[in-house]
Amino acid sequence: MTTANPAVCFKSVHFSKEGTHILRNVTGVFPKGQITTVVGPSGAGKTTLFKLCNGLDSPNDGDIFIHDSSISSYNPVELRRNVGIALQKATMISGTVEKNLALPLQLQGKTLSDERAGELLDIAGLDASFLDRDVKDLSGGQRQKLSIARTLVNEPDILLLDEITSSLDSVSRQDVEKLITAINQDYGTTIAWITHDLQQALTIGDYTWVMMDGEVVETGESNFLIEPQSERVKQFVEGEVK
Ligand SMILES: Nc1ncnc2c1ncn2[C@@H]1O[C@H](COP(=O)(O)OP(=O)(O)OP(=O)(O)O)[C@@H](O)[C@H]1O
Protein backbone atom coordinates (compact mmCIF):
# COMPACT_ATOMS: atom_id res chain seq x y z
CA MET A 1 0.00 0.00 0.00
CA THR A 2 1.34 3.39 -0.92
CA THR A 3 -0.02 6.75 0.08
CA ALA A 4 2.44 8.52 -2.23
CA ASN A 5 0.93 10.01 -5.38
CA PRO A 6 -2.61 10.07 -3.93
CA ALA A 7 -5.71 10.53 -6.07
CA VAL A 8 -7.09 13.02 -3.54
CA CYS A 9 -5.04 14.93 -0.99
CA PHE A 10 -6.53 17.18 1.71
CA LYS A 11 -4.25 19.80 3.23
CA SER A 12 -5.46 21.56 6.39
CA VAL A 13 -9.02 21.83 5.08
CA HIS A 14 -11.45 23.93 7.10
CA PHE A 15 -15.11 24.31 6.28
CA SER A 16 -17.82 26.14 8.15
CA LYS A 17 -21.37 27.00 7.30
CA GLU A 18 -23.69 29.42 9.03
CA GLY A 19 -21.09 30.00 11.76
CA THR A 20 -20.69 26.28 12.53
CA HIS A 21 -17.32 24.59 12.08
CA ILE A 22 -18.09 21.41 10.14
CA LEU A 23 -14.56 20.36 9.10
CA ARG A 24 -11.47 21.30 11.11
CA ASN A 25 -7.92 20.99 9.84
CA VAL A 26 -8.60 17.91 7.73
CA THR A 27 -5.38 16.49 6.33
CA GLY A 28 -5.13 13.10 4.65
CA VAL A 29 -5.22 11.18 1.39
CA PHE A 30 -7.34 8.81 -0.65
CA PRO A 31 -4.58 6.58 -2.10
CA LYS A 32 -4.69 6.17 -5.88
CA GLY A 33 -6.30 2.96 -7.16
CA GLN A 34 -7.32 1.88 -3.64
CA ILE A 35 -10.61 1.60 -1.77
CA THR A 36 -10.73 4.02 1.17
CA THR A 37 -13.57 3.54 3.64
CA VAL A 38 -14.69 6.52 5.72
CA VAL A 39 -16.40 5.85 9.04
CA GLY A 40 -17.44 7.93 12.03
CA PRO A 41 -20.44 8.88 14.12
CA SER A 42 -23.40 10.69 12.60
CA GLY A 43 -22.63 14.38 12.01
CA ALA A 44 -18.84 13.83 11.88
CA GLY A 45 -18.59 15.66 8.53
CA LYS A 46 -18.18 12.68 6.19
CA THR A 47 -20.75 13.75 3.59
CA THR A 48 -19.47 17.33 3.74
CA LEU A 49 -15.97 16.04 2.96
CA PHE A 50 -17.28 14.34 -0.20
CA LYS A 51 -19.24 17.42 -1.25
CA LEU A 52 -15.99 19.41 -1.17
CA CYS A 53 -14.29 16.84 -3.44
CA ASN A 54 -17.08 17.10 -5.97
CA GLY A 55 -17.19 20.90 -5.96
CA LEU A 56 -20.66 21.04 -4.40
CA ASP A 57 -19.06 23.22 -1.68
CA SER A 58 -15.63 24.86 -1.31
CA PRO A 59 -13.19 24.87 1.64
CA ASN A 60 -12.93 28.11 3.64
CA ASP A 61 -9.26 27.43 4.22
CA GLY A 62 -6.68 24.84 3.15
CA ASP A 63 -6.80 23.05 -0.18
CA ILE A 64 -7.81 19.80 -1.85
CA PHE A 65 -5.65 18.36 -4.61
CA ILE A 66 -7.14 16.04 -7.21
CA HIS A 67 -4.30 14.27 -9.02
CA ASP A 68 -1.84 16.88 -7.76
CA SER A 69 -3.83 19.88 -9.04
CA SER A 70 -5.72 22.18 -6.72
CA ILE A 71 -9.46 21.61 -6.96
CA SER A 72 -9.84 25.32 -7.68
CA SER A 73 -8.02 24.82 -11.01
CA TYR A 74 -10.76 22.49 -12.36
CA ASN A 75 -13.87 23.85 -14.01
CA PRO A 76 -17.10 22.23 -12.69
CA VAL A 77 -17.67 19.99 -15.74
CA GLU A 78 -14.06 18.78 -15.75
CA LEU A 79 -14.20 18.12 -11.99
CA ARG A 80 -17.39 16.07 -12.23
CA ARG A 81 -15.91 14.09 -15.11
CA ASN A 82 -12.98 13.16 -12.86
CA VAL A 83 -14.89 12.71 -9.62
CA GLY A 84 -18.19 10.79 -9.65
CA ILE A 85 -20.50 10.66 -6.64
CA ALA A 86 -23.28 8.21 -5.75
CA LEU A 87 -25.55 8.80 -2.78
CA GLN A 88 -27.68 6.57 -0.54
CA LYS A 89 -30.89 7.91 -2.05
CA ALA A 90 -30.22 7.88 -5.77
CA THR A 91 -32.18 10.72 -7.36
CA MET A 92 -33.96 9.60 -10.53
CA ILE A 93 -36.05 11.49 -13.03
CA SER A 94 -39.35 9.86 -14.00
CA GLY A 95 -39.09 7.69 -17.08
CA THR A 96 -36.97 4.83 -18.31
CA VAL A 97 -33.64 3.45 -17.16
CA GLU A 98 -32.14 4.63 -20.47
CA LYS A 99 -33.35 8.20 -19.92
CA ASN A 100 -31.76 8.24 -16.46
CA LEU A 101 -28.53 6.69 -17.68
CA ALA A 102 -28.18 9.30 -20.44
CA LEU A 103 -28.69 12.22 -18.05
CA PRO A 104 -25.02 13.09 -17.28
CA LEU A 105 -24.22 13.29 -21.02
CA GLN A 106 -27.44 15.08 -21.85
CA LEU A 107 -26.44 17.78 -19.36
CA GLN A 108 -23.26 18.22 -21.44
CA GLY A 109 -25.25 18.38 -24.70
CA LYS A 110 -24.14 14.86 -25.73
CA THR A 111 -26.00 11.62 -26.38
CA LEU A 112 -25.48 8.09 -25.08
CA SER A 113 -25.43 5.32 -27.69
CA ASP A 114 -27.57 2.20 -27.11
CA GLU A 115 -24.43 0.13 -27.28
CA ARG A 116 -22.66 2.12 -24.54
CA ALA A 117 -25.85 2.15 -22.43
CA GLY A 118 -25.97 -1.66 -22.64
CA GLU A 119 -22.27 -1.91 -21.73
CA LEU A 120 -22.74 0.30 -18.66
CA LEU A 121 -25.69 -1.78 -17.46
CA ASP A 122 -23.63 -4.90 -18.01
CA ILE A 123 -20.78 -3.52 -15.85
CA ALA A 124 -23.33 -2.71 -13.15
CA GLY A 125 -24.74 -6.24 -13.29
CA LEU A 126 -28.05 -5.33 -14.95
CA ASP A 127 -29.28 -6.93 -18.17
CA ALA A 128 -29.58 -4.70 -21.27
CA SER A 129 -33.33 -5.46 -21.27
CA PHE A 130 -33.58 -3.05 -18.31
CA LEU A 131 -33.02 -0.07 -20.63
CA ASP A 132 -36.73 0.26 -21.44
CA ARG A 133 -37.97 -0.34 -17.90
CA ASP A 134 -39.54 2.44 -15.90
CA VAL A 135 -37.31 3.39 -12.95
CA LYS A 136 -40.31 3.34 -10.62
CA ASP A 137 -40.51 -0.44 -11.09
CA LEU A 138 -36.90 -1.10 -9.98
CA SER A 139 -36.01 -2.71 -6.64
CA GLY A 140 -33.75 -0.82 -4.22
CA GLY A 141 -30.72 -2.86 -5.29
CA GLN A 142 -31.43 -2.38 -9.01
CA ARG A 143 -31.88 1.35 -8.45
CA GLN A 144 -28.53 1.56 -6.68
CA LYS A 145 -26.85 -0.37 -9.52
CA LEU A 146 -28.39 2.04 -12.02
CA SER A 147 -27.10 4.95 -9.94
CA ILE A 148 -23.57 3.46 -10.06
CA ALA A 149 -23.87 2.79 -13.83
CA ARG A 150 -24.93 6.42 -14.30
CA THR A 151 -21.89 7.61 -12.36
CA LEU A 152 -19.70 5.53 -14.70
CA VAL A 153 -21.04 7.31 -17.82
CA ASN A 154 -18.32 9.96 -17.37
CA GLU A 155 -15.69 7.27 -16.71
CA PRO A 156 -14.51 9.02 -13.52
CA ASP A 157 -11.19 7.90 -12.13
CA ILE A 158 -12.36 8.74 -8.61
CA LEU A 159 -15.68 7.45 -7.32
CA LEU A 160 -17.21 8.70 -4.06
CA LEU A 161 -19.90 6.49 -2.54
CA ASP A 162 -22.02 7.77 0.34
CA GLU A 163 -23.80 4.98 2.24
CA ILE A 164 -24.88 3.30 -0.97
CA THR A 165 -25.70 -0.04 0.66
CA SER A 166 -27.26 1.03 3.96
CA SER A 167 -30.86 0.61 2.79
CA LEU A 168 -30.26 -2.68 0.94
CA ASP A 169 -30.90 -6.26 2.06
CA SER A 170 -27.81 -8.42 2.58
CA VAL A 171 -27.95 -10.09 -0.87
CA SER A 172 -28.16 -6.76 -2.73
CA ARG A 173 -25.50 -5.33 -0.43
CA GLN A 174 -23.09 -8.12 -1.32
CA ASP A 175 -23.90 -7.64 -5.02
CA VAL A 176 -23.04 -3.95 -4.83
CA GLU A 177 -19.86 -4.67 -2.82
CA LYS A 178 -18.74 -7.12 -5.56
CA LEU A 179 -19.58 -4.57 -8.24
CA ILE A 180 -17.52 -1.82 -6.60
CA THR A 181 -14.58 -4.17 -5.99
CA ALA A 182 -14.70 -5.20 -9.67
CA ILE A 183 -14.78 -1.56 -10.85
CA ASN A 184 -11.78 -0.84 -8.61
CA GLN A 185 -9.83 -3.84 -9.92
CA ASP A 186 -10.81 -3.73 -13.59
CA TYR A 187 -10.46 0.01 -14.18
CA GLY A 188 -8.10 1.03 -11.36
CA THR A 189 -10.78 3.48 -10.19
CA THR A 190 -9.98 5.12 -6.85
CA ILE A 191 -12.91 4.56 -4.49
CA ALA A 192 -13.84 6.43 -1.31
CA TRP A 193 -16.80 4.88 0.50
CA ILE A 194 -18.67 6.27 3.51
CA THR A 195 -20.24 3.49 5.53
CA HIS A 196 -21.77 3.03 8.97
CA ASP A 197 -20.96 -0.68 8.80
CA LEU A 198 -17.56 -1.17 10.43
CA GLN A 199 -17.35 -4.76 9.21
CA GLN A 200 -17.87 -3.52 5.65
CA ALA A 201 -15.26 -0.78 6.20
CA LEU A 202 -12.79 -3.41 7.27
CA THR A 203 -13.47 -6.04 4.60
CA ILE A 204 -13.94 -3.73 1.60
CA GLY A 205 -11.37 -1.10 2.53
CA ASP A 206 -7.66 -1.09 1.76
CA TYR A 207 -7.37 2.16 3.68
CA THR A 208 -9.68 3.74 6.27
CA TRP A 209 -10.41 7.15 7.75
CA VAL A 210 -12.16 7.60 11.08
CA MET A 211 -13.77 11.03 11.44
CA MET A 212 -15.27 12.56 14.58
CA ASP A 213 -16.60 16.06 15.22
CA GLY A 214 -15.26 17.39 11.93
CA GLU A 215 -11.77 16.01 12.44
CA VAL A 216 -9.81 13.06 11.11
CA VAL A 217 -8.92 11.05 14.19
CA GLU A 218 -7.12 8.08 12.67
CA THR A 219 -6.20 6.85 9.17
CA GLY A 220 -4.25 3.87 7.88
CA GLU A 221 -4.55 0.44 6.34
CA SER A 222 -8.06 -0.73 7.23
CA ASN A 223 -7.03 -3.42 9.69
CA PHE A 224 -6.11 -0.73 12.24
CA LEU A 225 -9.87 -0.86 13.03
CA ILE A 226 -9.23 -4.17 14.80
CA GLU A 227 -6.78 -2.50 17.17
CA PRO A 228 -6.98 1.29 16.90
CA GLN A 229 -4.32 3.48 18.49
CA SER A 230 -6.66 6.30 19.44
CA GLU A 231 -8.74 5.88 22.61
CA ARG A 232 -11.65 7.75 20.94
CA VAL A 233 -11.56 5.39 17.97
CA LYS A 234 -11.41 2.38 20.30
CA GLN A 235 -14.57 3.58 22.04
CA PHE A 236 -16.26 4.22 18.71
CA VAL A 237 -15.34 0.78 17.37
CA GLU A 238 -16.58 -0.84 20.56
CA GLY A 239 -19.90 0.91 20.03
CA GLU A 240 -19.64 3.37 22.91
CA VAL A 241 -19.85 6.41 20.64
CA LYS A 242 -22.89 6.54 18.36
N1 LIG B 1 -25.87 23.26 4.92
C1 LIG B 1 -25.54 23.11 6.22
N2 LIG B 1 -25.72 24.14 7.08
C2 LIG B 1 -25.39 24.00 8.39
N3 LIG B 1 -24.91 22.86 8.93
C3 LIG B 1 -24.72 21.83 8.11
C4 LIG B 1 -25.02 21.88 6.72
N4 LIG B 1 -24.73 20.68 6.18
C5 LIG B 1 -24.26 19.90 7.19
N5 LIG B 1 -24.27 20.57 8.35
C6 LIG B 1 -23.84 20.07 9.67
O1 LIG B 1 -22.51 19.61 9.53
C7 LIG B 1 -22.28 18.46 10.32
C8 LIG B 1 -21.71 17.36 9.47
O2 LIG B 1 -22.70 16.87 8.57
P1 LIG B 1 -22.41 15.68 7.55
O3 LIG B 1 -23.69 15.37 6.84
O4 LIG B 1 -21.23 16.00 6.74
O5 LIG B 1 -22.05 14.51 8.58
P2 LIG B 1 -21.95 12.94 8.33
O6 LIG B 1 -20.74 12.50 9.06
O7 LIG B 1 -22.02 12.65 6.88
O8 LIG B 1 -23.25 12.43 9.07
P3 LIG B 1 -24.20 11.15 8.74
O9 LIG B 1 -23.34 9.95 9.03
O10 LIG B 1 -25.33 11.31 9.71
O11 LIG B 1 -24.61 11.25 7.31
C9 LIG B 1 -23.62 18.11 10.97
O12 LIG B 1 -23.63 18.62 12.28
C10 LIG B 1 -24.62 18.85 10.09
O13 LIG B 1 -25.75 19.21 10.85
UniProtKB/TrEMBL annotation:
Keywords from the named record: ATP-binding, Nucleotide-binding, Transport
> What InterPro entries does its record include?
AAA+_ATPase (IPR003593), ABC_transporter-like_ATP-bd (IPR003439), ABC_transporter-like_CS (IPR017871), P-loop_NTPase (IPR027417), PstB-like (IPR005670)
User: Which Gene3D superfamilies does the protein's record reference?
Assistant: P-loop containing nucleotide triphosphate hydrolases
Extract the Pfam families matched here.
ABC_tran
Q: What is this protein called?
A: Phosphate ABC transporter ATP-binding protein
Q: Which residues form the ABC transporter domain?
A: 8-238
Specify the species: Lentibacillus juripiscarius
Q: What are the GO MF terms of this UniProt record?
A: ATP binding
